[in-house]
Design goal:
The chain has helices spanning 36-43, 47-55, 85-90, 97-101, 122-129, 144-147, 158-175, 181-196, 205-213, 220-231, 233-238, 240-247, 250-264, 276-301, 306-319, 324-331; strands at residues 3-9, 57-59, 65-67, 104-108, 112-117, 137-143. The protein is α+β, with helices and mostly antiparallel strands. Strand 2 (57-59) and strand 3 (65-67) form a beta hairpin.
């Protein structure tokens, strides 16, 4: 048993899947890849349920084993009560790695691991947005068996990660402060320009939407929603000031930006990915897009509830950050 330096958001240990109480489901609309170890385990499950599991396994285009989704893209083991039949029949230990870990994510570096919870999950969004307290990230030493998965700690990332960590801490301090959101962004830009010795140019609303239009749509609902947003963007931009006065959302956007920076800015440390500037712009643009979605909701309903905020963050997350293709499209230079 060895030790790891682990950084996690302060609410990480509070998370627990709410299962059938969720308005959404991670068991619908997602390909569920079954890891090799679990596939072997499924070969030995006896009885009718073991036969059902094996009958619902298939190979995808990458020759990976996955569950056969039904015509509504539902996992075959998601029952009518929105509960998992594998857990009911075999226990949580029978889940494949993706189902067991979701919505957790891990970024591993030379001597450290960062753990988080994906914003595609409404319960995670609730934990993040239910109050205006600044989001905090705690670093501690833990035994590797506490996390339960193995990590490949790449020594080549050491210097890059240490430099990034210091810059990012300055960003978190600014975002947790009392300045208006736009002033916080200006301060972040100063930090980036000072450390990179380069000029930061943020994307306009039109540029953000033009780039998002090129992303691979997750479903028809995304395309319909995005088209409405794009068609009415002038109206939404004009309504931003009354929206700000009515919703007082500065701290919410500061928290969302902190969290997106925590997950994505560290990707620039890996040598085969895009650079710091590209990921920084990605993070800022993401929160701007989410705010435009909030303004759209406000214009349509004359209010913006916590439920609305959660839905808009979750929609962005599913479409963008849970697609490597779309993240690459929005970060790599043409």
């Amino acid at each position: 048993m060895s030790e790891l330096v682990v950084t996690r958001p302060s609410f990480y240990k509070e998370f627990k899947c709410i299962a059938d109480k969720c308005n959404d489901s991670c068991c619908v609309g997602w390909e569920i890849v079954v890891d090799r170890e679990t596939s072997e385990k499924y070969k030995n499950i006896k009885g009718d349920f073991g036969e059902k599991i094996r009958a619902n396994l298939m190979k995808d285009e990458d020759n990976e084993t996955c569950f056969k989704l039904d015509e509504n893209e539902r996992c075959p083991f998601l029952n009518k009560d929105k509960l998992c039949d594998i857990i009911i029949n075999c226990g949580e230990n029978a889940l494949c790695g993706i189902c067991r870990e979701h919505p957790r994510f891990y970024n591993d570096f030379s001597e450290s691991v960062e753990c988080g919870l994906g914003l595609c999950c409404e319960e995670v969004c609730r934990l993040l947005l239910e109050n205006d307290e600044a989001v905090c990230f705690k670093t501690e030493i833990v035994h590797d068996n506490e996390i339960g998965i193995n990590f490949y700690l790449d020594e080549s990332t050491h210097e890059g990660y240490i430099a990034l960590y210091k810059i990012r801490e300055k960003m978190f301090n600014i975002l947790s402060g009392e300045l208006p959101y736009n002033e916080k962004i200006a301060r972040l830009i100063e930090i980036v320009e000072e450390n990179l010795n380069a000029k930061v140019t943020l994307d306009s609303d039109g540029t953000i939407l033009a780039r998002y239009e090129q992303t691979e749509p997750i479903n028809k609902e995304w395309t319909s929603y995005f088209n409405e947003l794009q068609e009415n963007i002038c109206e939404y931009s004009e309504k931003e000031k009354p929206f700000d006065e009515a919703t007082n959302g500065d701290k919410k956007y500061s928290k969302i930006l902190s969290y997106i920076i925590f997950r994505h800015l560290s990707n620039c440390v890996y040598g085969d990915n895009a650079g710091f500037m590209e990921y920084f712009n990605f993070c800022i643009s993401a929160v701007r897009f989410i705010k435009l979605c909030d303004i759209k909701t406000f214009c349509e309903t004359k209010e913006l509830t916590l439920k609305d905020r959660i839905e808009n963050v979750k929609r962005w997350s599913k479409q963008i950050e849970y697609s490597d293709l779309n993240v690459d499209l929005l970060t790599f230079e043409e």
